[in-house]
Amino acid sequence: MGFLDGILGRSKPPEADLDVLFSVPQAVISLQLEGFTPTGSGSVCFRDVEGQADDAVMADAEKIITSSTGSTVTRSDDRFGFHWLTVSRTDADVSGLTTDLHAVNSSLADAGFGTSLLCSTFVFTTPAGTPFGLVYLYKRGTFYPFAPDGGERRDNALELQVRGVIADDVPVEPDLTKWLAIWGAPGLA
């Protein structure tokens, strides 16, 4: 940030700490002890950038992931216009999934699209069989649980329970108003 930016009140968005994604496998162990099961699926959400430069980066990331791991990669858009790249692993290996999602995020960030990254999700099922996601917010560098409860309702009690389970494993977002609803996210509908 330059001197003039400081005077005019402009700030530079924080850089995403992508390496914190590698703390997710520890959180998964804690969640599994409580009966939660990883599905082997996770997604990266980002805003589209004008032109096709980000499409080329995504295509390269897809090739790397599918050729080295055998994972499947799908792209989708939600009703809000955000793009999702979903990685699904048949072996439900969370460490491998974390590496795959990190590769996608790093590819976008290294190509200059880091400010377009919105969140990453890791999808789980509860002991009752309902989905919930562990969401990483790039701009905040924190995680929060998101538990849809049919329609556009949330299971707040489950979200608070999960927060207690993972609090020692990953940086949890302390401001509950930042626990955004990500309706229509892949695997969480």
Structure description:
This protein has 189 residues and is an alpha+beta fold. The protein has a single domain (14-178), classed as EIF_2_alpha (Alpha-Beta Plaits). 34% of the residues lie in helices and 23% in strands. Strands 2-3-1-4-5-6 form a six-stranded antiparallel beta sheet. The longest helix has 20 residues, at 94-113. The model has no long low-confidence stretch (mean pLDDT 87).
Strand content: 15-25%
Number of strands: 6
Give the CATH H-level superfamily.
EIF_2_alpha
Contiguous low-pLDDT stretches (5 residues minimum) are none
The number of helical segments is 5
What percent of residues adopt helix (DSSP H or I)?
Answer: 25-40%
Q: Separation of termini?
A: 40 Å
Note the run of SSEs as H and E: HHEHEEHEEEH
Structural class: alpha+beta
Mean pLDDT over all positions: 87
- For the record, the count of structural domains works out to 1
Could you name the CATH topology?
Alpha-Beta Plaits
Radius of gyration: 17 Å
**Biggest sheet: strands side by side, in what order?**
2-3-1-4-5-6
How does the SSE layout of this entry go?
Elements: H1 3-8, H2 24-33, E1 37-46, H3 53-69, E2 72-77, E3 83-88, H4 94-113, E4 117-125, E5 131-137, E6 142-146, H5 156-166
Antiparallel strand pairs: 1-3, 1-4, 2-3, 4-5, 5-6
Pfam families: PspAB
InterPro entries: PspAB-like
Q: What are its keywords?
A:
189 residues; alpha+beta; Alpha-Beta Plaits; six-stranded antiparallel beta sheet; 6 strands; PspAB-like
